[in-house]
């Protein structure tokens, strides 16, 4: 059974993690909705509120209204529907959100749309919002399998400590980082951004893009907590600990699957 939601939260008292899910009905491949559920539960169990706004095609995005923007993965054809709208109606708000330190988590198809473009073939490219300095090109065949990476995030563990994120990837796109764009992490096992660069994902401040599904957060509870704390501008170690027996087992299983 799930622990009950504390009364103060049910009564709408703060703090509240305000999340905007972008195009949730289109960008949700591989049960990426599990990432949002994970955030909601871990907030609720701690007495932190959770407010989810679904923002889709045609909707305005409030640049000051959210602590975290979430974009999931998608098929090329669904990304095509989102890309034009993202660039034409939400680009300024996404940039303003990030510029004031707001957090962004974008997985796979969503990650690709945070770059400058996603080239589907020699003549067709989907536009991106350019929040991360990278571009993606469709390659020969798909990069599929279990994946583990090591990452260093501010406040996650001791200074300089590298921690592991484990998940599953399935993408046709190869993502090329600009020289000045740091990856999210280093591939320990699996393909990552291109299958050859050894780099996985990208990070600029609190903006994170990654190819890791899983869903990512249920298999990496420590990262879910880092995200919650960062989005709420709390020290990452300051969240109340939870009983993570199931989550730890899920993390260990994902690492085992990736051979790490
Ligand atoms: N359609 C994109 C690709 O194939 C993203 C896939 C995904 O989100 N899993 O690269």
UniProtKB/TrEMBL annotation:
Q: Name one GO molecular function term.
A: transferase activity
Query: Quick one: which pathway?
Result: Cell wall biogenesis; peptidoglycan biosynthesis
Q: Which InterPro entries match?
A: Class_I_gatase-like, CobQ_GATase1, GATase_3, Lipid_II_synth_GatD
Q: What is its EC number?
A: 6.3.5.13, 3.5.1.2
Pfam families of this UniProt entry?
Answer: GATase_3
Q: Which residues bind substrate?
A: 142
Reaction(s) catalyzed by this protein? beta-D-GlcNAc-(1->4)-Mur2Ac(oyl-L-Ala-gamma-D-Glu-L-Lys-D-Ala-D-Ala)-di-trans,octa-cis-undecaprenyl diphosphate + L-glutamine + ATP + H2O = beta-D-GlcNAc-(1->4)-Mur2Ac(oyl-L-Ala-D-isoglutaminyl-L-Lys-D-Ala-D-Ala)-di-trans,octa-cis-undecaprenyl diphosphate + L-glutamate + ADP + phosphate + H(+); L-glutamine + H2O = L-glutamate + NH4(+)
Report the active site residues.
Answer: 108 (nucleophile), 213
Domain annotation CobB/CobQ-like glutamine amidotransferase: ranges: 18-220
Keyword Cell wall biogenesis/degradation in annotation: yes
Determine the domain of life of the protein's source.
Bacteria
Keyword vocabulary terms for this entry: Cell shape, Cell wall biogenesis/degradation, Glutamine amidotransferase, Hydrolase, Ligase, Peptidoglycan synthesis, Transferase
The record's listing under PROSITE patterns reads: GATASE_COBBQ (PS51274)
GO BP: cell wall organization; cobalamin biosynthetic process; peptidoglycan biosynthetic process; regulation of cell shape
Q: Which family does it belong to?
A: Belongs to the CobB/CobQ family. GatD subfamily.
Known partners and oligomeric status: Forms a heterodimer with MurT.
Function, as annotated = The lipid II isoglutaminyl synthase complex catalyzes the formation of alpha-D-isoglutamine in the cell wall lipid II stem peptide. The GatD subunit catalyzes the hydrolysis of glutamine to glutamate and ammonia. The resulting ammonia molecule is channeled to the active site of MurT.
Recorded protein name is Lipid II isoglutaminyl synthase (glutamine-hydrolyzing) subunit GatD
State the gene name recorded for this protein. gatD
């Amino acid at each position: 059974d799930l622990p009950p939601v504390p009364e103060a939260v049910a009564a709408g008292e703060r703090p509240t993690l305000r999340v905007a899910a972008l195009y949730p009905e289109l960008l949700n491949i591989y049960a990426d909705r599990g990432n949002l559920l994970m955030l909601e539960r871990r907030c609720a169990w701690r007495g932190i509120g959770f407010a989810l706004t679904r923002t889709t095609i045609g909707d305005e995005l409030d640049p000051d209204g959210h602590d975290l923007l979430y974009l999931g993965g998608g098929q090329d054809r669904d990304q095509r529907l989102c890309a034009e709208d993202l660039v034409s109606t939400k680009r300024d708000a996404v940039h303003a959100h990030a510029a004031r330190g707001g957090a962004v988590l974008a997985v796979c198809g969503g990650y690709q749309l945070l770059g400058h473009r996603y080239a589907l073939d020699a003549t067709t490219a989907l536009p991106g919002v350019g929040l991360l300095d990278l571009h993606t090109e469709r390659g020969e065949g798909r990069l599929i399998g279990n994946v583990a990476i090591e990452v260093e995030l501010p406040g996650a563990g001791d200074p300089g400590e590298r921690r592991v994120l484990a998940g599953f990837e399935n993408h046709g796109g190869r993502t090329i980082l600009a020289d000045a764009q740091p990856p999210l992490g280093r591939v320990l096992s699996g393909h990552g951004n291109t299958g050859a660069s050894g780099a996985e994902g990208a990070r600029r401040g609190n903006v994170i893009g990654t190819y890791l599904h899983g869903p990512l957060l249920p298999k990496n509870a420590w990262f879910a907590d880092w995200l919650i704390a960062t989005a709420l501008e709390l020290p990452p170690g300051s969240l109340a600990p939870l009983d993570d027996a199931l989550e730890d087992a899920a993390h260990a299983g994902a690492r085992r699957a990736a051979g790490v």
